Amino acid sequence: VCVAETGDNFPGGMKCVTSGWGLTRYNAPDTPARLQQAALPLLTNDQCRRYWGNKITNLMICAGASGASSCMGDSGGPL
User: Containing domain of residue 42, as a range?
Assistant: First the structure.
């Protein structure tokens, strides 16, 4: 597993992939039987703070796009 190191640069717009067995839609009754994945662009922390406010620190990496994201059950999964 690759882990980010101090000084690593993750520019906004860089493509990444997340995966997990979390819910495939809000309030879905079950999780999927197959591992799911989604390609997402990284966001700058300033972009992320516009949505989440000052909960976002400079030690975080933020990714997301309209129509694709991780969901409940994917927390702690790979990015």
Answer: 16-63
- Structure-block tokens of residue 36: 């799911």
Determine the Cα–Cα distance for residues 47 and 15; give it in Å rounded to an integer. 16
User: pTM of the prediction?
Assistant: 0.71
Q: Which residues of the chain have pLDDT under 70?
A: 1
Give the pLDDT confidence score for residue 77 in this predicted structure: 79
CA distance readout (Å), 35 to 18, 29, 32, 70 = 10, 17, 7, 12
DSSP string of 57-74, one letter each residue: -TT--EE-BTTB---TT-
Residue 7 falls within a domain, yes or no? no
Q: Given this model, what pLDDT does residue 29 score?
A: 85
